[in-house]
Design goal:
The protein is α/β, with parallel strands linked by helices. It has 15 helices and 11 strands. A 7-stranded parallel beta sheet has the order 4-3-2-1-5-6-7, sandwiched between helices. A 4-stranded mixed beta sheet has the order 9-8-10-11, covered by helices on one side. Strand 2, helix 2 and strand 3 form a beta-alpha-beta unit. It starts with 5 loop residues before the first strand and ends with a helix. The structure holds NADPH dihydro-nicotinamide-adenine-dinucleotide phosphate (NDP) and magnesium ion. NADPH dihydro-nicotinamide-adenine-dinucleotide phosphate (NDP) binds next to helix 1, helix 6 and helix 9.
């Protein structure tokens, strides 16, 4: 049976997930056609991608980058129309020739374009976990209202999705499921003495032992804020309560997460740590297709280890779980404070253990409110960033 070609938009095409997505797309030219590619500032890399995939649209942050890109595409891909800013991102997320949108912009900047894809009823391949952390309740309501098909790209959530009963809808934990076992490697500092954490450098923090990822999520993996954000993401995606999710440290990253059933069965999804597996799974779903990932060599992994997380080592994980239990705007504040803290750490402005200290200060200072509109989410995000920056300025001058 011939499969109709699907139009694809890749938000954040120049990033780690974006590039892995293009690698998968290039393996299946019969199935996928690239309608739009987007970047923020990496104009040259985006131009190279355009010259290979010839999308209808390419989006960059502002007019200056747009001019640079237009010049580069003059001969390389003259039919590609260059668009700008959030409006451009929203346009290519909702375009009528698009079937699937890969949401792979990092951070809060991904919220509006991802929501545009949801509202347009697309198949949304969700890598941008921050949009669920900022406003999981509204996000899932929008999915429900539009009939968008939400599929998780985050390897853990993709694994959980694969281990849940196949016909179960997202957003409601199916009967018979007792617990989600959310695995994480523990990052590069799993065995470092806790006293030494204060002195770790950005270069050490972004050097993840198993996964190759963008800088922000690499720092999040070191602090295990990433697992905290994923805890929140799992609650919303699968309709689980905080008590139904258990974080397990699994240093080998071969099992990507598990689901425990009431009869004692535990289903796990395994594979090499390569994001092309969840990407190909979600793009081809419900069919399976080649991802380019090497077969798992079980003999290479003579043993798999499992450990409980230690909150003294990973205070960010505890802050995230507490914010989820608190609900409302607490996770919006958590996400914004974390983004500012990680940026400041990467810029050498604050030390590594100032990341949790600052997030905790922001959470304490903010009053938790119910989230009713997206505008409210964006304004809480902005207010928190302002408070977080003040905190850093203060810390720098003392
Ligand atoms: P990268 O930093 O590698 O890439 C981020 C992408 O977003 C780039 O294309 C970047 O453009 C673009 N971007 C950054 N800021 C903006 C902005 N303000 N407006 C528009 N576009 C912007 O990140 P990753 O690919 O690692 O991660 C992307 C998302 O996927 C994150 O939410 C992350 O948590 C999630 N994720 C990533 C995994 C991984 O293995 N990398 C695994 C699971 C989830 P430019 O290149 O021009 O800066
Ligand atoms: Mg993950």
């Amino acid at each position: 049976m011939a499969i109709a070609q699907q139009g694809v938009t890749i938000l954040g095409a120049t990033g780690s997930i974006g590039r892995s997505t293009l690698d998968v797309v290039a393996r299946h030219p019969d199935r996928f056609r690239v309608v739009a590619l987007t970047a923020n500032r990496q104009v040259e890399r985006l131009a190279e991608q355009c010259s290979q995939f010839h999308p209808d649209y390419a989006v960059v942050a502002d007019a200056e980058y747009a001019q640079q890109l237009t010049d580069l595409l003059h001969t390389a891909s003259p039919a590609t129309e260059v668009l700008v800013g959030v409006e451009g991102l929203e346009q290519v997320s909702a375009d009528s020739s698009v079937h699937q949108v890969m949401a792979a912009i990092v951070g809060a900047a991904g919220l509006r374009p991802t929501l545009a894809a949801v509202r347009a009823g697309k198949r949304v391949l969700l890598a941008n976990k921050e949009s669920l952390v900022m406003t999981g309740a509204l996000f899932m309501q929008e999915v429900e209202a539009s009939g968008a098909e939400l599929l998780p790209i985050d390897s853990e959530h993709n694994a959980i999705f694969q281990c849940l009963p196949q016909q179960a809808p997202l957003g409601a934990i199916p009967p018979g499921v007792e617990k989600i076992l959310l695995t994480g490697s523990g990052g590069p500092f799993r065995t470092l003495p806790v006293e030494a954490l204060a002195g770790v450098t950005p270069a050490e923090a972004v050097a993840h032992p198993n996964w190759s990822m963008g800088r922000k999520i690499s720092v999040d993996s070191a602090t295990m804020m990433n697992k905290g954000l994923e805890f929140i993401e799992a609650c919303w995606l699968f309709g689980a309560t905080a008590d139904q999710i258990q974080v397990v440290i699994h240093p080998e990253s071969v099992i990507h997460s598990m689901v425990q059933y009431s009869d004692g069965s535990v289903l796990a999804q395994m594979g090499n740590p390569d994001m092309r597996t969840p990407i190909a799974h979600a793009m081809g779903w419900p069919e399976r297709m080649n991802s380019g990932v090497a077969d798992l060599d079980l003999y290479q992994w003579a043993q798999l280890r499992f450990e409980p997380p230690d909150y003294d080592r990973y205070p960010c994980l505890e802050l995230a779980i507490e914010a989820m239990r608190q609900g409302g705007s607490a996770t919006t504040v958590l996400n914004a404070a974390n983004e500012v803290a990680v940026d400041a750490f990467l810029d050498g402005r604050i030390g590594y253990m100032m990341i949790p200290a600052m997030i905790e200060a922001c959470l304490k200072q903010a009053t938790t409110t119910e989230i009713v509109t997206i505008e409210q989410v964006i304004s809480i995000d902005q207010e928190t960033r302002h408070a977080a920056n003040e905190w850093i300025n203060h810390a720098e001058h003392h």
